[in-house]
Amino acid sequence: MNAPVKTAKLIKGATGDFEVIVGMEVHAQVTSKAKLFSGASAAFGGAPNAHVSLVDAAMPGMLPVINEECVRQAIRTGLGLEAKINLRSVFDRKNYFYPDLPQGYQISQYKSPVVGEGVVVVDMPDGEIVRVGIERLHLEQDAGKSLHDQHPSMSFVDLNRSGVALMEIVSRPDIRSSEEAKAFVAKLRTIMRYLGTCDGNMEEGSLRADVNVSVRRPGEPLGTRCEIKNVNSLRFIGQAIEVEARRQIGVIEDGGAIEQETRLFDPARGETRSMRNKEEAHDYRYFPDPDLLPLELDQAYVDALAAALPELPDAKKARFTADYGLSAYDADVLVGERESADFFESVVAADGRRRDPKAAANWVINELFGRLNKDGHSIAESPVSAAQLGAVLDLIADGTISGKIAKDLFEIVWSEGGDPRAIVEARGMKQVTDTGAIEAVVDEIVAKNPDKAAQAKDKPAMVGWFVGQVMKASGGKANPQAVNALLKAKLGIE
Ligand code: MN
């Protein structure tokens, strides 16, 4: 039943190899205007305690009312994870004290979550496909935030987040390396961003992961796990797994035993440290919340949501490779964000014509994304539109400009805007295909360099040097094929 262990993923200890086993609990903030059980705003930021209703502040006698939009978003996410939707689910009270959780308990789901088993398909850069099982997805409230740096002797509390809807997505322990863990969270994020159910903004805390890590020698039963709480970036998820696996291997190799506990990752020190012994579920004294009825759904409602889902990244990737003939790698890069995929398709299909998809993919991935990254822009902020990039591709395709000039043109459109074809006309950027004009330049260069011309007969590779000189003399505008052909004729090379 167990797949053979890939040796590349094993971690070398002093006494042999170890395998790392990772499972995740991802907390994703539901995209909705209001909180899970109150009408207060769920927007990020705002003055402290500006988004707090009497329900969120847990005033006596206040009753929670379920926000239908949050339920809809959780179901849509479940459908996007190919998961079972439970038509009946129950909200429970999870009892624990936090100073920033005024109810004294969190409303969550325990035995009957709204979403059951599903799967996330993760494509690794080496082409391996890792299927990470999803155990469940449930809805629960977020807590507020304690502020310890506002006053020398007091802590303040900001309840703006208190009661905001979270989806807790629990994976099976199917992850075998820090790279797979990062790719899993990235894929989950992409799916939710496609669905519009979570913005995936890790800096604002919209997506954070509790990472369960254990190690074992290959073939042995699962070891004891430690949970690293609230890791809030992909990089930190990777680092936390690496250092925690190393720590556990060290303990085992020294003859010790791993104790189940909750740990914190300290990125500055590059270590995890113990936070508390792990609670068991019974410590929370879960019981059904008497203020809320069980959540009952119609199959027809679920079916309607399923029918209205957008095309998701896996389906889009399959279509991009099949219909456009793109490589798996290119398709993966383009479907990473829905907006990028849409931009690419607009470049290919602008004004009713279909442009060469591979050329379009190349330009979008290498030139446009490269430029966007350099300036820290998202695709939505691109100064070059799909129509403008399409026009640049047309100019290359019809031989008006060379690929090299196209890069200069792209740069001009990026910084100044305008119609690419008009820019080429106005600035005299057209490729010179007039053989007579090119021939004059070729003759001049050859005449100036008789030694090299003589050598070129025996060393045909020398022609490259001549091509460079001619291109330079023509300001990059000579048609490279024409230059090559003319030079070979003039230099007497076959
Ligand atoms: Mn939780």
Explain the overall architecture.
The chain is an alpha+beta fold. The chain folds into three domains: 7-305, no CATH class; 313-426, no CATH class; 435-491, Arc Repressor Mutant, subunit A (Orthogonal Bundle). 38% of the residues lie in helices and 19% in strands. The chain has 15 helices and 16 strands. The chain has helices at 68-80, 178-195, 234-253, 299-307, 313-324, 328-335, 338-349, 357-375, 386-397, 403-416, 420-426, 435-448, 450-458, 463-473, 480-491; strands at 11-13, 16-29, 88-89, 92-95, 105-108, 118-123, 129-141, 145-147, 156-158, 165-171, 207-216, 226-231, 261-266, 271-277, 287-288, 295-296. The strands form four sheets. Strands 1, 2, 6, 7, 10, 11, 12, 13 and 14 form a nine-stranded mixed sheet that branches. Strands 5-4-15 form a three-stranded antiparallel sheet, with no helix packed on it. Helix 6 (328-335) crosses helix 8. The chain is elongated, with a radius of gyration of 30 Å. The model has no long low-confidence stretch (mean pLDDT 92). Manganese (II) ion binds next to loops.
